[in-house]
Design brief:
The chain is an alpha+beta fold. It is about 20% helix and about 35% strand.
Length: about 700
């Protein structure tokens, strides 16, 4: 396609485009939502999402544990807090700080909670972020935690893609839209300013400026007592970073608006490394080899020594063929290391000392399960909160202090009957010989009379990009809508993700993107070869970058699947860089304007490879008008093109929801019911 006949559908709020959307929505609702089966499923899923027995995850700030909570009585949610002693109770008493439903009703705005940053070390104020209808752009308001009210003359910013964070009581780092030239080509802040209370944002002192072609600029302040320091920098690409220690030449902090008094000291690590400062340590995570250590390693340096030129690291982690670094969480005196061993979690505690770093296990994690540190309070104590779950095991939340036994704080309820189900891990072989792991959750073959289960309806999910790892996790929604109704659920750990560290991600970058597609198709073929399912009973689903994966499956391997669900997708690979945040993803896919990259993008771009003579499985495309990350035009144009070519397709676009596709539990339940009704209809089985 050299000319795009559906370019008009990129006009997000255009009258013609919205009229087309309304027609498609009506068709989809008529096809999928009319009848008691859909309504019953939606109600059931809403019960799961609103269940007051689920775990209220928290963030500690001082003596309080803060939580954001939605349920049937608070669809937009409440921001609240409690103490640890109260949290230990079965039904804790919560102090409500902000009722978003009441705020939205009072101001006549579709506010969606987008987070809050509580000021350290006094914990007296917070910067609250509010989104209209779930978009990435936010409004920012200062909030008084004592009076539980917004500060009238406090820090306040209009709607924009904004970065803002506390420096001290009267100053913040700010990056926002100040007009032409202040945002990058990707639509993110280009500058970092030091903004003083009582002054206009435009008067804030400029301390750093990124190039227009960079992804974004950033600034943050480390308020750890004894290690206070500020950093600024930029992301030239999605996977590269330049970080500078912000140093004042006169030692006053430079926060009175005067210019020319700051200097930048570069933290001189490889551009594609991740940098963290923790007390006296500089922690560097490698994406490429450096100082004799392989990609995927975690290195520790004395911070001051590194700035002085010292380059002898203490090596905290080195990957191998089966293991990868998943992340780390600092406490006051220790580092909790989270690693994967063939996509199952392993947890260790690392402790620096005069003779190096000691290590020991933190907790035993069951096989084929996932453990995540949900919170630590690194400036104050060695406390940690650890969440453990798996596909068939609801979450258990532990609290511990390193060196002592952990206690169970909360256990999530089971939302479906897992009797007769099992979790298995298999490895498919991709065409180039790579072993690709995947998890199968469904009827246990050992419970079948002959040790084998009949091929049944199967839902295969994948993502395969941006170093995102697909790890085992419990989902009451998937359990109720799919597993509990006789389906098998499969998650593919294809290349492009981070399951095996940087090598796994980098294997599918740019022109090698097709390897991720081949991996996913190999998993599908392996499921069929094992007799777990058949092509007519195999459905697939994915969103965002996973939506691109679904589009590639549609155009490259349609014979393998019986139905495809595509959420908030990226599908036009020749124009993605011109739409919203798309320019920031060129490090992942390539540059459509480059002679070197355009051929491979055109070769697999789903929108451009749809054909009239091909047999495609039924498709459901969903998106959001307010998605300001992945443009809704991708899904709109692909649905229009499929219709023009005479192929079966349903399309649904929510007016709100942002990139998540939903702003509350009601909308989430609708989306999930729509998806699973579509899948059951085309794959067979018991839908209600």
């Amino acid at each position: 396609m050299t000319d795009d006949p559906f370019l008009w559908l990129e006009d997000v709020d255009g009258a013609d485009a919205l009229a087309w959307v309304a027609e498609r929505n009506a068709e989809t609702r008529a096809a999928l939502t009319e009848g008691p089966g859909f309504r019953a499923l939606q109600t059931e899923l809403r019960e799961v999402l609103d269940d007051t027995g689920r775990i209220p995850y928290t963030t500690r700030r001082g003596e309080f544990l803060y939580s954001f909570w939605r349920d049937a009585g608070h669809p937009k949610g409440v921001w609240r807090r409690t103490t640890l002693d109260r949290y230990r109770e079965d039904d804790p008493e919560w102090e409500v700080l902000l009722d978003v439903d009441a705020l939205a009703a009072g101001e006549g705005e579709g506010w969606v909670w987008a987070g809050a940053a509580v000021r350290y070390p006094d914990y007296g104020r917070a910067l609250v972020r509010l989104s209209r209808d779930g978009s990435d752009a936010v409004c920012v308001r200062e909030f008084d935690l004592g009076t539980k009210a917004f500060v009238e003359d406090g820090f306040r910013l209009p709607e924009a893609k904004t970065n803002v964070g506390w420096i001290d009581e009267d100053h913040v780092f700010l990056g926002t839209d100040f007009g032409p030239g202040t945002m990058t080509d990707s639509g993110y802040p280009r500058t970092v300013r030091r903004w003083r209370r009582g002054t206009a944002p435009e008067q804030a002192e400029l301390v750093f400026e990124a190039a227009a072609g960079d992804v974004s600029a950033f600034g943050w302040h480390d308020a750890t007592p004894g290690f206070e320091r500020s950093f600024v920098g930029c992301r030239p690409t999605f996977f590269t970073t330049e970080v500078f220690l912000l140093s004042d030449t006169d030692g006053t902090g430079g926060t009175d608006g005067a210019g020319g008094r700051v200097r930048l000291v570069k933290v001189d690590v490889p551009a594609d490394a991740d940098v963290d400062a923790w007390r006296e340590w500089l922690l560097v995570t490698l994406r490429t080899p450096w100082l004799g250590q392989p990609a995927g390693s975690l290195l520790a340096f004395d911070f001051d020594g590194f700035l002085a030129g010292e380059r002898s690291p203490q090596v905290l982690f080195v990957p191998d063929a089966h293991t990868a670094l998943a992340g780390f969480s600092p406490t006051r005196r220790h580092l909790i290391l989270n690693t994967f061993a063939d996509v199952s979690t392993r947890m260790e505690v690392l402790t620096p000392g005069p003779d190096g770093w000691a290590r020991r296990p933190l907790a035993d994690v069951p096989p084929l399960a996932c453990a995540t540190v949900t919170d630590t309070d690194a400036d104050v104590s060695d406390e940690y909160f650890l969440d453990v779950d798996s596909y068939l095991r609801p979450s258990t939340l532990y609290r511990g202090e390193i060196g002592a036994d952990a206690e169970i704080l909360k256990s999530a309820p089971a939302h479906f009957d897992a009797t007769g189900l099992s979790v298995r891990q298999y490895f498919a072989t991709s065409p180039d010989g790579t072993a690709v792991p995947y998890f199968v959750v469904g009827p246990d073959p050992a419970a079948a009379p002959d040790g084998e289960c009949d091929p049944g309806p199967t839902l295969l999910y994948g993502y395969g990009g941006f170093e995102v790892s697909m790890v085992p996790s419990y989902s009451g929604v998937t359990g109720r809508a799919w597993l509990g109704r006789g389906g098998t659920y499969v998650v593919a750990n294809i290349r492009g993700g981070g399951e095996y560290g940087p090598r796994w991600h980098q294997a599918a970058l740019g022109a090698d993107r097709v390897l991720a597609f081949e991996d996913f198709a190999a998993v599908a073929a392996d499921l069929i070869a094992r007799g777990i399912t058949t092509p007519s009973r195999l459905g697939i689903a994915g969103g965002s970058n996973g939506g691109l994966l679904m589009g590639a499956m549609l155009t490259r391997y349609p014979e393998l699947f019986g139905a495809i669900v595509v959420h908030v997708p990226l599908l036009d690979m020749l124009r993605f860089h011109r739409l919203l945040a798309g320019a920031s993803w060129m490090a992942e896919y390539g540059d459509p304007d480059s002679e070197a990259d355009r051929p491979h993008l055109a070769e697999y771009s789903p929108y451009h490879n749809l054909a009239a003579g091909q047999m495609y499985p039924p498709v459901l495309l969903t998106t959001s008008t307010r998605d300001d990350r992945v443009h809704p035009g991708h899904a709109r144009k692909t649905a229009a093109r499929l219709r023009e070519l005479g192929h079966p397709v349903l399309f649904h676009e929510h007016t709100g929801g942002g990139h998540a596709g939903a702003t509350d539990n009601e909308q989430s339940a609708f989306n999930q019911a729509l998806t699973h009704t579509f899948l059951w209809r085309h794959l067979g089985g018991r839908a209600t």
